Amino acid sequence: MKKTSAASLLFVLLISAGAFSQNIATTRNAAIDIEPEVPKISRVDNSDIRRKRAYPMQPPTIPHKIDSYQVDLNANKCMSCHSRRQTPDSQAPMVSVTHYMDRDGNFLADISARRYFCNQCHVVQHDIKPKLENQFVDIDELLRAGSQR
Ligand code: HEC
Ligand code: HEC
């Protein structure tokens, strides 16, 4: 008996939650009982055009697709183009020298373990309209604005 009344209380709570949720701000853009059309998965920008960095130490974003580029214990597909050895064949920019340094600043013959998992720092960009406008101000613009004062 107790169990059923608890269950019906939960039911009432759920129903009223459903009623209230219509006023909650959401990016769902449809009532809770309507299944909106699923947006298409956006395409990865594969233009091969290297992008400007927001500041000198920024890991550059990836200007090509990375589908099925395996990076694990046994293989690092990225390094098959970006390593010092492979750049003459791939014409890819070599990973910078920091990628060959250990934490004490010694230079190694091969990629440092600290830089092995490329996607920790480098990401692709998607061909989409951003939900919010980017208000980032480049240091050059800041300096220019400052010198005009
Ligand atoms: C088949 C060769 C190849 C593979 C594999 C590859 N890349 Fe590249 N990558 C390139 C080339 C060539 C460029 C130069 C721009 C272009 O042509 O896309 C580039 C550009 C980049 C850049 C931009 C560098 C800059 O200065 O703007 C980054 C970052 C990058 N790749 C990261 C990666 C990562 C991370 C992976 C693995 C997930 C990877 N790449 C796998 C060939 C490759
Ligand atoms: C811990 C973060 C981190 C990881 C992991 C990492 N990178 Fe980078 N990468 C950076 C940063 C920061 C820069 C820019 C400053 C520099 O060169 O150190 C950079 C620069 C680059 C560049 C441009 C080099 C140049 O001289 O223009 C390429 C290409 C690149 N990384 C590829 C890779 C690839 C491929 C891997 C995986 C094998 C990788 N990175 C792993 C942080 C990282």
Automatic annotation (TrEMBL):
Signal peptide residue numbers: 1-21
Listed InterPro entries: Multihaem_cyt_sf (IPR036280), NapB (IPR005591)
Binding site residues for heme c 2: H99, C118, C121, H122
Binding site for heme c 1: H64, C78, C81, H82
An example Gene Ontology CC term for this record: periplasmic space
Compartment(s): Periplasm
UniProt KW keywords: Electron transport, Heme, Iron, Metal-binding, Periplasm, Signal, Transport
PTM remark: Binds 2 heme C groups per subunit.
Gene Ontology biological process terms from the UniProt entry: anaerobic respiration
Matching Gene3D superfamilies: Flavocytochrome C3, Chain A
GO molecular function: metal ion binding
Family indicated by similarity: Belongs to the NapB family.
PANTHER family the record matches: PERIPLASMIC NITRATE REDUCTASE, ELECTRON TRANSFER SUBUNIT
Function: Electron transfer subunit of the periplasmic nitrate reductase complex NapAB. Receives electrons from the membrane-anchored tetraheme c-type NapC protein and transfers these to NapA subunit, thus allowing electron flow between membrane and periplasm. Essential for periplasmic nitrate reduction with nitrate as the terminal electron acceptor.
Subunit structure: Component of the periplasmic nitrate reductase NapAB complex composed of NapA and NapB.
Protein's name in the database: Periplasmic nitrate reductase, electron transfer subunit
Organism (species): Seongchinamella sediminis
Taxonomic classification: Bacteria, Pseudomonadati, Pseudomonadota, Gammaproteobacteria, Cellvibrionales
